[in-house]
Amino acid sequence: MQKPKLLIFDVNETLLDLSSMKESINKALDHEFAFSQWFAFMLQYSLVDTVTSNYHDFGTIGKAAMQMTQEKLSRSIPDSKVQELLSMIKSLPPHPDVKPGLEKLKDAGYRMITLTNSTHEVVTQQMKSAGLTGYFDELMSIESTRKYKPHPDTYQYALQKAGVKPGEAMLIAAHGWDITGALQAGLQAAFINREGQVLYPLATRPQFNEKMLTPITEKLTAL
To answer: What pTM value is reported for the model?
Structure first.
């Protein structure tokens, strides 16, 4: 495989640990699958916006998805509680393997950016809160394209802005749909197999498939 010139990181679940948010949403709605349903709705309707040439920012879709989740589960919580729960996404901790992995990649000279479905304002707050800002050359969002991952244009936007060809970049993500999108766009990909995450069986396999970032880091620094 070709050594990538650019590493593109997804943010939510890939770098940041959503377990505290999951626990809080499940507790507030008194349902063990409330968070999973909310997150699925959020991803589903971000894609609905994209394929219907519409756009709402990810936070707005997240709020609508919470309303849908309450309706689906026959639950009801105050708007103030909804806002409290959704605001948690701005101050999530990094997974334990993230800082050691990023440190080693930075020391090895890798150029690294983020590419997230969240707005630029939110990813900036997230990275500052998690203490990860200094590892990245740029914090990118799909906001400029108004098309959500895994639309090909989102990856092309990042490549063009970074000045690299598709095969010279690698997406690192914990979502099978994101990995699929990147591979279809011609990028290399590394899947972090976080708990509950799986690859799409009908898609091309990524170059790396590991349970944490650190083994991927070791392989990349050996290239």
So the answer is: 0.97
